[in-house]
Design a protein that fits this description.
This protein is α/β, with parallel strands linked by helices. The chain is built from eight helices and seven strands, in the order ααβαβαββαβαααββ. It folds into two domains: 178 residues, Vaccinia Virus protein VP39 (Rossmann fold), CATH 3.40.50; 46 residues, no CATH class. A seven-stranded mixed sheet has the order 3-2-1-4-5-7-6, sandwiched between helices.
């Protein structure tokens, strides 16, 4: 998934603790949108799949949501342990294969799939299906990297010095037009197309229940930076 060199401090600086106010707003809004769509209950056993430094779980606990928690992340688990130190209701896992089948009632997978090679996205979604109890729900979020939003994002990255290596004029224009098949992605958002997620969910056996966007409640993919899906494993 993410590059192994990623650190929690770097991760925080480019997400919910970014020096850019609009970026902080966007990432914190996606956390709140995801929690709203998850609708965590005290009876839930919840997994944050690719949970980074544990910010989602910490936010859920601080809001009195959920029951038992687990976090899986192959790169930032040490930092998640620091973020979630003192929370005895949280289990930590570095290998998804170590998690038992049908063991979670709710799963979140936020801003993970864009870091996965295209040919492995279906495998990750199938693994999430494996981990969910029948009747359980997953909330997935991925960035919108096509259309007008992609142009705004790529320009902002160029201005801030955080552009991905494959941010070429050609790739920026192709992303704007939503023609991404020819864009070579190397752990880059550029070339990612959120429209491929729903077919993967359906192929895995999920039933799509709802779709949402963040950070705004209006405008859909034209003005928002993330799209969220809630899907369920049939009972």
């Amino acid at each position: 998934m993410r590059n192994e060199a990623m650190t929690a401090s770097w991760y925080q600086k480019v997400t919910y603790r970014s020096p850019w106010r609009i970026k902080r707003f966007s990432h914190n809004a996606r956390i709140q949108r995801a929690l709203g769509m998850l609708d965590l209950k005290a009876s839930d056993v919840f997994l944050d799949y690719g949970g980074g430094d544990g910010h989602l779980i910490r936010t859920a606990i601080s809001q009195g949501l959920g029951g038992k928690f687990a976090i899986y992340d192959p790169h930032l688990l040490r930092d998640a342990r620091e973020t979630l130190a003192g929370f005895s209701e949280v289990a930590f896992c570095e290998q998804a294969s170590a998690l038992p089948d049908r063991s979670f009632s709710k799963i979140a997978c936020l801003e993970v799939l864009e870091h996965v090679p295209v040919e492995k996205v279906r495998d990750v979604i199938a693994d999430i299906y494996r981990l969910l109890c029948p009747g359980g729900a997953v909330v997935l979020s991925v960035p919108i990297e096509i259309g007008p939003v992609s142009l705004a994002k790529n320009l902002a990255r160029l201005i801030s010095g955080t552009a991905f290596p494959n941010t070429t004029v050609s790739n920026v224009l192709l992303s704007l037009l939503g023609i991404t098949a020819s864009i070579a992605r190397c752990d880059s958002h550029v070339g990612f197309d959120y429209r491929g997620i729903v077919p993967c969910l359906i192929q895995a056996g999920f039933v799509l229940k709802s779709r949402g966007f963040s950070p705004f409640n209006f405008g859909g993919a034209l003005v928002n930076s993330q799209v969220h899906y809630r899907a369920e494993r049939p009972a």
